Amino acid sequence: MEYSLYKLDPLTGAENRVEMLPVLRQELALVQRNAHASSIMIMDLDHFKRINDTHGHVVGDSVLATAVRYAKTILRPYDRIFRYGGEEFLVLLPQTSLDEAQAVAERIREALHDQVLAHDHEVAVSITTSAGVGLLEPNLTVEESITRADTALYAAKQGGRNQVRVSAPASPFTAGTA
Question: How far is CA 1 from CA 7, 8, 101, 126, 169, in A?
Answer without folding.
Answer: 10, 10, 31, 33, 39
